[in-house]
Each structure stands twice: as C-alpha cells, then as structure tokens.
Specification:
Layout lengths: L3 H56 L12 H14 L1 H4 L13 H13 L1
Helix pairs in contact: 1-2
Length: about 120
C-alpha cells in the first residue's frame, strides 16, 4: 500500500491537472470566440461596402458611372471607402497653438518628418 504522503501527492497532481485543463479550455474558447467576432465583423464590413457600391452604382446616371462608362469606378469604390473609413485619413495636424484641439506632439512629429525629407 502507498503511504499517505504519496496519496496526497497523487491527488494533488490530479487536482492540478484538472484545474490546468479547465483553464486551458477557457483560454481556447476565448480565442475562438474572439476569432468568431472578428470574422463576423469583417463579414458585415464587407457587406456594407458592397451595399454602398451597389447604391452608388444605382443612384448615378448611366453616363456618369465612370469616365469611360465601363464600371471601373464602381470596382475601386470598396477600397476607397475603406481608406476613407480610417480615422487617420481625416485627421489633419492643427498648427494653430491657440486652437483647443492643438496637439503639440503631432505637430512636432510632422515638422521633424518634413525636415527629414
């Protein structure tokens, strides 16, 4: 028969393994859930871009769809919309120090980048 010290060690290892397995399963589930949420978001974003392109194509007069009328404008519209959706695209550095939205760090970074060119 095994001594009580060995039994305590066995049951401690068993309990530790069960707790580790439970924690590992929760970690895997959390990663899978985050991937599912991201995949759903990307799907919805893609559908919105397609709907915007379809609406724009539908709402433009037939001769104004592109310069050549071949649909090229509609083909590049989703890429254009994704660029415009980026907040950095619309953010301009305010160089007036009296403006309440003046950002010194952004202004200095812009000036340093200009000087480096």
């Amino acid at each position: 028969m095994a001594s009580s010290g060995v039994n305590v060690l066995r049951y401690s290892a068993l309990l530790g393994g069960i707790l580790y397995g439970f924690q590992h399963q929760r970690t895997i589930y959390a990663k899978q859930h985050a991937q599912d949420v991201e995949r759903e978001y990307q799907s919805k974003e893609s559908l919105i871009a397609k709907a915007k392109a379809a609406y724009l194509q539908k709402s433009l007069p037939p001769g104004k769809k592109t310069a050549g009328g071949d649909g090229t404008f509609i083909a590049i519209l989703p890429r254009f919309l994704s660029i415009c959706a980026n907040p950095a695209f619309w953010r301009a550095v305010i160089s007036d120090p009296d403006d309440p939205k003046f950002d010194l760090e952004a202004y200095l970074t812009l000036k340093m980048a200009d000087e480096a060119k």
